[in-house]
Automatic annotation (TrEMBL):
<dbReference type="InterPro" id="IPR000923">
    <property type="entry name" value="BlueCu_1"/>
</dbReference>
<dbReference type="InterPro" id="IPR008972">
    <property type="entry name" value="Cupredoxin"/>
</dbReference>
<protein>
    <submittedName>
        <fullName>Amicyanin</fullName>
    </submittedName>
</protein>
<dbReference type="InterPro" id="IPR052721">
    <property type="entry name" value="ET_Amicyanin"/>
</dbReference>
<dbReference type="GO" id="GO:0042597">
    <property type="term" value="C:periplasmic space"/>
</dbReference>
<keyword id="KW-0574">Periplasm</keyword>
<feature type="binding site">
    <location>
        <position position="127"/>
    </location>
    <ligand>
        <name>Cu cation</name>
    </ligand>
</feature>
<dbReference type="Pfam" id="PF00127">
    <property type="entry name" value="Copper-bind"/>
</dbReference>
<dbReference type="GO" id="GO:0005507">
    <property type="term" value="F:copper ion binding"/>
</dbReference>
<keyword id="KW-0249">Electron transport</keyword>
<keyword id="KW-0813">Transport</keyword>
<feature type="binding site">
    <location>
        <position position="93"/>
    </location>
    <ligand>
        <name>Cu cation</name>
    </ligand>
</feature>
<keyword id="KW-0186">Copper</keyword>
<feature type="binding site">
    <location>
        <position position="130"/>
    </location>
    <ligand>
        <name>Cu cation</name>
    </ligand>
</feature>
<dbReference type="InterPro" id="IPR002386">
    <property type="entry name" value="Amicyanin/Pseudoazurin"/>
</dbReference>
<dbReference type="InterPro" id="IPR035668">
    <property type="entry name" value="Amicyanin"/>
</dbReference>
<feature type="domain" description="Blue (type 1) copper">
    <location>
        <begin position="61"/>
        <end position="140"/>
    </location>
</feature>
Length: 141
């Protein structure tokens, strides 16, 4: 939007300055000004569209595996968001969905696993090595 304002101010200054010298030339070529304004508006619209697309891209949320727990144990996200589990324990762990929707495999200390959730629903998961470790992902549309 700022580019459009600058262009309009610039065009107004050119028109005012040119009126004294070339009134007929300016009047005969209005389509040039219209084309430049149209190009700028189109570029501004594309810029807005790109920003909107970026806003709807999924977020990445962290789940820490530490002290034989998933933290947070329950997490709410939106469709398209990604969760990254990172194991900070010295013991190996997994993040394995109870319905086989995802499985991190064994994560050693410092290793991570990421999963992007494309469908709304509730996903309960455990560490298959330590099944008392439980977590829930709630994916909202």
């Amino acid at each position: 939007m700022n580019k459009l304002i600058v262009l309009l101010v610039l065009l107004a200054a050119i028109l005012v300055a040119g009126c004294a010298d070339n009134t007929e030339q300016i009047i005969d070529e209005p389509e040039i000004v219209e084309d430049e304004v149209s190009d700028l508006v189109e570029a501004e619209d594309n810029e807005t569209m790109d920003m909107d697309t970026e806003e709807h891209m999924g977020a990445t949320v962290e789940v820490i595996i530490e002290n034989f727990e998933f933290a947070p144990e329950e997490i709410r996200i939106s469709v398209g968001d990604t969760i990254t589990w990172t194991n900070l324990d010295t013991a190996p762990h997994t993040a394995t969905d109870n319905n086989d929707m995802f499985d991190s495999g064994t994560l050693a200390e410092g290793e991570s696993f990421s999963m992007t959730f494309e469908e709304a629903g509730t996903y309960d998961y455990i560490c298959t090595i330590h099944p008392y470790m439980k977590g829930t992902v709630i994916v909202e549309a």
